[in-house]
Every structure is written in structure tokens, then in C-alpha cells.
Fold each of these.
Amino acid sequence: MSKPELNLKPFEHRVRLVRSWRGAAIGACIGASVCAVWAVLDWKSIVYTQWTWLGVSLLSWTVLGAIVGASRKISPDQLAMSVDRRAGLEDRLTTAQERSDAHDAFDVALQNDAHDAIARVQAKTIYPIRLNRFHGISLTLCVIAAAIFMMGNSPVILSEEQKKARQELKKQGQVVERVTKENFESPEALKEMNAAEKRLADQMRELRKDLEKARMSPEEAMQRSNEISQKAEQLMQQSQNAMQQDMAQAQTIQDQMEKADSMGDMSPTLSAQLTPMSKSDKAKMLNEAKKQAKQIQKELEQLRKRLAEILKKLANPNLSSKERELLEAEKKELEKSISELEAKQKENESLQKALQLSQEARDVFKKLANDPLFKKIANLMRKLERDASSASKSGKGKLTDEERKQIKEQLEKLAQELKDPAKMKAYLEAMLKALEDAKRLGRCNNAMLGISGLPSMPGMLAPPGAGAPSEDTWMGDNHHVYKLDKPAESKGKTTTSVISGDVREANGPQPYVEIKAPTVVGNRSSVPYSSVLPSYSKKAESALNRQEIPKQHQKRVKEYFDSLTGAGKG
Amino acid sequence: MAEQADATWFNETFDRVRNEVQKAIVGQHEIVESTLIGLAANGHVLLEGMPGLGKTLLVRSLSKALSLDFSRIQFTPDMMPADVTGTNVLGEGRIFEFRRGPVFSHIVLADEINRATPKTQSAMLEAMQERSVTVGGKRYDLAEPFLVMATQNPVEQEGTYPLPEAQLDRFFVKLIVPYPTKDELREVVTRTTGSLDQELSSVATRDDVLRMRAIVRDVPIASQVLDYALSLIVATHPDGEGTSPAARRYCRYGSSPRGAQALVTAGKVRALLAGRFNVSKDDLRASLKPALRHRILLNFEAEADGITADQVLDQVREFVATRDRDPITA
């Protein structure tokens, strides 16, 4: 009697499935633990996260667990033992599996018995897919992680004040996001940004993220936005300087071209004569000059020949004194004629050169000057110059992004059309570079303005614009100026100084306390006033220049900052 | 070579003998089955129980059902070894002749064996293990099949001599004969006080018994099942690797290798009785107490705590079961 083969494959597949299910649960346990830790870190503002990240982490671990579970090795002997146990086969499969190659007593009967027994067993019955303790643990951990994350991210457990502060920070975060997007995240900006700008953009993104999470204190938000603002200002200053240099270079090149057009070393008279002449006249004149040059050359040769003969005769010692006198006189006359002719020849050469130069330069420059694009660009360049000087004065550019873009496009078009002459190309490149600088200046300027207006903290003046209170309420409305509700508790060493100004109704010196950061507990600035004063006073000044402060308050603002500056110096 | 038909024949024969014996014995199914297992496994049986529980009747019924030679030795304190094995006597030709003792039978009932002195008890040692008797320097083989079925009263009784460990170890199984239930008792009383006496007939021969023993030996056992058996044995040892906490605490001596042999062989018989061709762990578990209860020697702490060998074996079984896990923990 032949022995039937034991087919354990269906059981093996089922075991893999069940192991995968269990592995997924174990993976989910690990994933949920990781999520819980991550949520705690998020709550403590150490490492921020989002729902999606937590979900992806959990899912990844679950899938990994399932794969590991399914891919674990299953030996046939172990499988037989397991099936025996689970199906109550009284070790039939184990014995049959072990004695599959034996031919002793009962072996055939044993194999038949095992085969019959296994035929009555269904894999899914003995290896059911059911929830086990790992599923429970993973679910519990998921709930814990979610709870921790929610506690850190939902305002349920916060006081009204904290909620308000969070909302405010979130709003500021939106502003930073808008500013970052507008200035640093457009495809054009991404292409053009240099390393410093990229760093600035990264910092802004980080700040935005932190503000959106609203898990930082207002003091910290103010400090960080102030730092970014200062960096933006530095960058703006650098860009402005670069732009001015570029503009100066462009101007130099333009001057050179104009000089070439005005015929370089040509005499003013000749220049005056040539200027009104037409192109054909100049060509004619050039031909005549060339003919004249030949004639002069010929005459010069004859005169020089005659002079050489005279000099030869004069060398004869047998000449009479009369003859010598005549020859001397003729020699003088010849020399005079030669020098006159040489002068003429030089003038002719100059004329020819002038005529040739003029033709080349004028051809190009005329083409450029007559080009409508160039006219427009010239206007825009003037605007650009104004923009640069305005930015340096007020800290805010006048050119819009649209205008800058337009200028750039037009310059590029023009450069394409007029790319042959090297000077022209250099000129256009310089202008393009200036425009780039202008754009950078604009970006940094926008970033600085956007950021500096963020936290509405005591003592920090937010100019109108992105994220700042409206123009109507700004500074003029005392209700929107943050005040300390309670005296700040100082933890560090404090120094008392005296300033003058109109902080209160009464005039005269007022005491103030300068506190070194971070030494303050409560809703108070943690930045030393002396470190922010210059930037704020500058901002205030620029706001005054731009007429953005209501008239009735302009004087008050000016005096206030003057007094602060004076005190700081004192 | 044994085949499926042999297994079927084994079962049929076993059932026939069992049914025949059960005609005389009321109840006590487990005892009857275990006794027959001892017979089929070529092992001696020790029956322990209070007087009057049918121990002697069981042995006598068995011999009748198997049509084997049967002798009964009633052990008493004054019994001598020669009374068991036989002795040389001076014959008519003034020559010493060996007169066989009662041990020269197929089935020997050693009744109340613990009443004999250790000297006499030990006279059974050679017969039980070597299947031979040596008297006067001459060895006499015993006829196969040879089965000693000893009965003993509980050792606590007065005037008894507990069997030495060496002799206990020779017994394949030790069966505790329980009191009959009320219904069984009623049946016993009805049968024994009435006029109807149950006549038993022979349903199996000596050759049948020998064939049964041969079939039993052919039953295969998987290595991991054998490991399980050995784990049970090792777990009864009071020290060493794999010992159980119960054995460590309550055992003075654990089971000998004969215990493992008995366990596996009994398992083989049970496998055949279950219609299987392989020994299972359940077979081993079922044979655990009969095969090992007389092979473990409890210490004073066990006696003080009232712990019996069966209780220790229960704990040993649990201990081994906890370590015997599903290899595919799905």
C-alpha cells in the first residue's frame, strides 16, 4: 500500500496570514508607542508633528509588522505539531511527518490515518483571525497617543487667556505663511533666491510652523520675529547696496556708449560739424577725406624728396654764399610746407576715424534709442532708482512686483534683440542685475515688514500691513496697545535707568526698568529694550515718512522715540 | 510487520478479554483496562486497595478469560522465599529435585504482598525482572507470558512491610482500586449473595497474549512525543534540569528509566486501543499516574502536607504542559 503525501500548504498559507495579522498588531503597538512619544514631544514643543505624520508612522509600523509576521519561517515539523494541537489530531501529523520516509510497522496505516485526519480539518477553523491582546494594546496606545496629541493641539484644556494668545499666534502664523508664500515660495523666487534668502525663508517657515502650532509664548514669538526681521533688514540693505552698484555700473556703460557716440577725441568743432550731418553725407565726406589723405601723402613725398635734394646741395662746400642763402630759404619753405601737410594729414586721419567710429556707435545707439522698449526701460530705470533711494529712506519699495516682472521681461526681450554689441549686452546685463537686486530688496523688505508687524506685544509697535492692526487702530487706539495686567516678576539682576519723554501725561523724567531676557514671568517682553530700540525707532521713522501715522499722533510718536533714543544714549 | 489488520485484531481481542473480565468484576473499568494494558505491555501490575474490593477476583477472572496458568500466593509475615520460588527437595532416588514454587505460572497473584517480609518480597525480584528463578545455583526460566499481579493493602496498616523501591520499580503500573459506587456495590452484593454464579470462559490464548505484546512494540512514537514523555520523567526528579517545582519540593526520589519505559509502552497500548497508529501525548498523560505513582518517593514535607504521589504527578503534568506550547504561536 502506498503512503499518501501530507499536504500542509493550506495550513502554511493560513498561518502566514494569521501571523501577518498578529504582526500587524505588534507593529501597530510599536507604531502607536512611537506616536504617543511623538505626541508628548509635540505637546512639549520639542518636535512638532501632525495628524498625517502620526497616521503615516502608525501605518508604516503596522505594515512592517505584517510583512515581518508573514515572512517568518515555518518549518513543516512545527506546522504539523501545531495542526495536531489545534485540531486535536493526537499527534498523528507529527508522527506521520516524522516517519514519512520510514517503512516500518504501521507506517502506511499511520500515513493513511494522518491523511484522513487532515482532510477533515479546515485551516481557517484552527487558525482563526481574531483580535488578540496586541490589537487591544495597540488600540489603547493609539487612543493615548491621540489624546496626548489632542491635549497639545486643542484648546479644550486652556484658559480663556491662553486660548486668546493661541488664536493670536495662529493668526500671526497665517500672516507669516502669506508673507513667505508671496515672497519666497513662488517658482520665480525659488529660482532666483540666493543662500541668505533661502536661510531667511527657512527661518520664516519654521516660525510659521511654530506660530501655527501656537505652542510658544508671545514673548518667544516676538523675539523670533524680531530676529528674522533684523535679518531681513540686513539682507535688504545688502541688496540695496548691490543694486546701487549695479545701477552705477549700468550708468557708466551708458556713459561710455554716449561718449563713443560723441566721437571720442574729435575736436568740438568737428563734432559740431558732424553731428547734424546725415549718414550719406558722412559717407561722402569719408571718401573725400580718404582721397584728400592720398593727395596729402603724395604732396608730402614730393616735398620730402625736394627737401632731401636741397639738403644734399647744402652739403657741398663749394657753394657760394648767395647760392647757399637761396637754398636755405627754400629749405625753410619746404619744411614749413611739410609740417603743414603733416598737420593736415593728421587732421584727415582723425576725421576718418571719427567718421568711422560715429557710424558704428551711432548705428547701435540710434537703434537702441529709437527702440520703444528702451524708452520704456529708461523710464522704469528712473523709477527703479527712485525705488532704491526710497527704500533706503523709508524701508519700503515703491515698485510693485508686477512692474518688476514687466521690466525684467522687457529687458530680456531687448537683450535678445540687441545682443551683438558687447557694450550693449553688458549694459543690459547690469540693468538686469539691478532689477534682480531690486527684487531681492523687495522680497527682504516685504519679509521684514511682514514679520516685524507680527506680535502685538507691549512696547512693540506694529506698522500697518500684514498681520498688524489696521491703520485706524494702530498707535492711535490705546485699547489695542497691550498693557501689563500685573507687575512682572524679575528673576535676574535688574538695572534702573531714567528716560525722558511723554509716556505719561506729566512731563519730565520717568523711571523705567530694563530687564535682561529671559527674566520675566508674565505677559511682558523678554527682549531688552535697548536691543530693539534702534529698529523700532527706524520703523517709526519710516512710518512717519510714509505718512502712515495719523497726523494727530505723529508728533507724539516722534517725541517718544527721541526721548527713548536720548535715554538710551544717556 | 504489524499492519492495520493487526491493530484491529488487537482491539478486538482486548475488548473480548475486557468484556469477559467485566462479567465478574462490577465497575472498576479503569482498573480492568489498566490491568489488561499491563498484560499487553508485558508488565506486572500492583493493585492497592482495601480488602474486599475485588482485587483477587480480578486476577482470577483474568486468568480464566485468558486460559493461562494461574497461581495465588498469599503472603504472610512468616513466609519464606522458597515458598514463592520453590525449593530443592530430596527425592525418592535420594536426589535433590527442584520443586517449583507458585511463581512458575503465567499469572501469579501475589496477594497482600506487603504482608511478607522484605526477604520474601525480594524473592520476587528476579522472577519479575529476569523472568527466571535461580535456586541452588540453577536457573529456571519462567514461561511466557509471565505476569505478576500483586495486591497490597495501604502501607499504613499494622503488620505490613512496605515494598522496597527496587521492587516497586519492577511493577509496570500501580493501580489504586477505589471503592465501588453505590450502584456497583448493589450489583456486587446482588451477584455474590444470590444463587447465580457467573461462569467465565476463555476468550484468548497464551499465543494471543504474546502476539498482542508484539503488536504493541510496533506502534511508532514521534520524537517530540517521546521528548514529552522524557520531560514528564525528568520533571519528577527533585533536582536537575527540567525538574518541576512540585518534585523539587515534595520528592525524595524521582522516577527511574523504567518509569519512562512503562509510560511509553502504556501509551502505545492506549494508542492502539484508541484506534491510532501513533502514541499521542494524551496517551502518555493517561498513563502517567499508573506508571509513575509508585516510582516517585515522597519526602517528609509531602507527608506532612498530606500530598500524595498522584497530586505531585498532577502538578508535574501541568508543569510540563505549560512548557509544551504551540510551536507556531499565531
Note: Residues 190 and 201 of chain B are 21 Å apart (CA to CA).
Amino acid sequence: MDDPSDINQTRRGIMIGGALSVTAAAMPGVGAAQTAGPGITPAPAAVTPAPVTHKVALRVNGQRVEANVDTRTTLLDLLREHLHLTGTKKGCDQGQCGACTVMLDGRRVNSCLSLAVMHEGAEVTTIEGLGTPDKMHPMQAAFVKHDGYQCGYCTPGQICSAVAVLDEIRKGQPSHVTADITQRPLLSVDELRERMSGNICRCGAYSNIIDAITEVGGKA
Amino acid sequence: MKAFTYQRPTSPAEAAAAVMKVPGARFIGGGTNLLDLMKLEIETPAHLVDVNGIGMDKIEPTRDGGLRVGALVRNADLAADMRVRRDYGVLSRALVAGASAQLRNKATTAGNLLQRTRCAYFYDPYQPCNKRVPGSGCSAIGGYTRSHAIVGQSEACIATHPSDMAVAMQLLDVSIETVRPDGSARVIPIADFYRLPGNTPHIENNLAPGELITAVTLPKPLGGKHFYHKVRDRASYAFALISVAAVVQPDGSGRVALGGVAHRPWRVAAADQAMAQGAQAVTAQLLAGARTTEDNAFKVPLVQRTLASVMAEARKA
């Protein structure tokens, strides 16, 4: 039987080792001087190259934002890590769950599958821009009223998506369940379920979410 | 994700030239597939050329009564265009059967054509895959093959093409317009666009290096009734196990294409000829020489039954 304290010591040892190796890597000159003999070209030091950065300016919830970001930064990470707008959630980080849904130039998108640098001049609205605890968006109020969540992690994405669904139906965009695609779609439960299929709720609050959207849609 | 440099060109020709300048450069449009693959380091471009903001985003009528769809027209906008809904229903249906609304708002026409396979072994960097690392072997062969190809596959690769839109486009005989790095343009009929895997499954289409898709042209409308029936494990937001795209004329003639069965959207001239003879005859032509596994043999009867349901629906008033 392993003693848990051994495990802790081992892990601590690994952490110290890791920290030391990072330090060594950060001082390539020292490492190279120790290993390279006379006339031997020093091996390239294992230094993490400086990130490639690029400037981007956009508007987030009505405010102008300028950032010089690593080109790899997704729109989601720009929102959460740089702007500290943590209402938008990172779920799967691969476009399958919808937790990161935001409005980009008035249309819902997965912010995890989008690079920040690709949105120069864009207008982004996150859950924080839809409403506040004191002045909730009607969709937020309806989610509260109908208990459209359990743990709440998917909720910001669900609400952004739900607001977009009503807009898309209003504009007459067809869906997979629209019986006649040359006609305007209906505001039916089947339409809402299909249109919300890009937002997964692990708690299974789907029926209450549909109730909330139906109520707001009926008023619109 | 591997680090990369980033560039916004100002014209399609400049974009094509820019991709040729930097080894390992790629175009990025909607990014919904490329970024996913970059996070897994299956795609590792050194440089991205962002083709957004250089036009190519309109749907315009052509002189012969068709439609010219810009490469950057988003899937959601193409599906919602009233001309497409009215005259090319199979295309609108195929588009809304794919992905989620969020993805369709970003995904582009050209990017959808160029989607990589969703084969789980291609997506797993720890397994050999000839498409990901040429010559490394195929992990799907002898593996779990429920979603894999039943026609046109090779000893090197049994992956399927994941697109719904491309199946409808194959049915409609669209043309793909491109610009090459030297600035010259050409038109590729979709029948000559996709490749079977053969010994080079990593080469999926006949675009030359640096060649950029600028538009897709739909020929004049076919008339008839349009169908896109997609069969999948969930009611929504899942890739096809199989799909049937069809246009059926009042006399029972028509054309048909399949998704989910091959490395490319699948169309057979003899199957179109057999349309009036019923689902069994058409399936026999479409899937002649099919090679199935225990996992995916169900696709053959599934194609026939889905086709039968399409034909029954077509016969309704």
C-alpha cells in the first residue's frame, strides 16, 4: 500500500524539478557554456520562442477594445483571459457544446472556433452585454422564471443562442425541421429544439429552456 | 496550437500569392474546421492568410439563369437565400442539415467543400493515419468502422467526406471557380474536384498548391422535387451515417447523390439512369462493388430504404 505522503513528496519533487528545468531553459547562455566544448557549435537552446503577436481593435459590449495578442488567441480567450468577461464559458473548446456562444456582428457564433485577430472592427456582444442582474434581458428573466438551468455553466451560451434563435425566426431563416423552406418558419417547439441543438445542457434543462424561449418569442 | 504568423491580404490574387510565399501557409475563412484541427496539432500551418474581407461574399445571378455563390458566403446565408430555397431546395436542405446554427453562421462555402474527414483515427494524433502522416498506415482498417466508407475506399484509407453541402453540390453539377498564385483563373467541374483516396489519401482534391476557391456556380435550376434525407445517430447536430440527395421529376426520372459512403460525395451516372426503376435498382448501381465491414454493412440497406422513402415522398401530390 502506498503511503499518501510518498505520493505528495513525489509530486513535490517533480514540481521542483520542473521549476528548475524551466529556469535552466530560460538561461540558454549558461547551459550552452557548460555543455559545449572548444570548437563545438552549441546546440540551439531549448527556449520557448517569443509568441507571434498581432494587434486587433474591436468593440465588445459597446466598448472599444484594443489588444496585442498572440495570434493563437481565440475570441473566447480574448474575452475571458484578456478582458475578464468570464460570463462566456469554455466547455469543449471545439465547437461542439455551445457554451462559448456570443453575438458577433449580430449573429451567434462559437467564440472558441474563432481567432481574435480575425475580428478587426467587429462588434461582439456577450452575456454581460445583454443584461445585468439589475436590468435583465427578457430572455435572462425568462430563464430565471422557468428555471431554465441547473448548474448554470451552459446558461450564458444558451441565452445568447436563444436571443439569436428568435431573431433568425423573425428574419424567416429556414431550419432542418421547417416543412416548407419557401415559407416563413413557425415559432414551434420543434423549431426551437432544432435551432437550439448547438447548445448542450448536461443537466438536461431543455424543456424549461424551451418554455423560456417560447414565452419570450410569444411576446415578441 | 503551434505558433503562426497572420496576414490579411486585399484581393484574391494577393491571397493566393501570399500562401505560396511562406512554406506551410494556409488560407483561413470561417475557421470552424481548421482551428479545431490546429488545436489538436493535426494541422500546423506556419502562416495564416485570412481571406475574409476580400470580397467573394455575394450571391449573384449568372447569364444562363444560374447563381454564382461567392466562396465566403456563409452556410447560413446560402441556406436562407430565397433563390436557393426556391430553385435549389436540395442545397438549402443539405446546408441546414449540417452542423449547428452557430457554425453555419461562420462556415463558408469554400471551406465547407474543403472540410477534412471526421474519421476518429484521423483525429487521434497517437494513431497511424495515412491522411495525417502519409505512409504511417491506416488505423481504421481493422478498427471500428461504423462511420467509414463502403465504396471507393483503398488499402490506404477508408475515411468518408463529412460535408452535406458538397453532396447537394455534386448532385447539382456545380462549377468551382479558382484563382492561382500567378493570378490566372480556372473553373473546375465538381465532378473533377474531389479525389478518391488511392495511395495518396492526404491529397483530397485537385486544387494546385496555393490555388484559392473564389466562387461556386450553380447551373440553371433543374426543376422537379428536391430532397436531402440525412440519417444520423441524433435528430440534429451530428454527421451523417448516410445521406441521400435527390431531384425527382414528375415522370420519375431524376438524379441522386450519396453522402457518408465514400471519400467524396458519391454519384454514379448509371444510378441516375435507373431512377424510374425504383430504389432497389438505383441502390444496386450506386453501391455496385461495395465493400463493407461487420460495423458498416448496415449502410447498404439504409441507403436503399432512405432512397425508397425519398421516392415515396416524390410520388405524393
Note: The two ends of chain B are 54 Å apart (CA to CA).
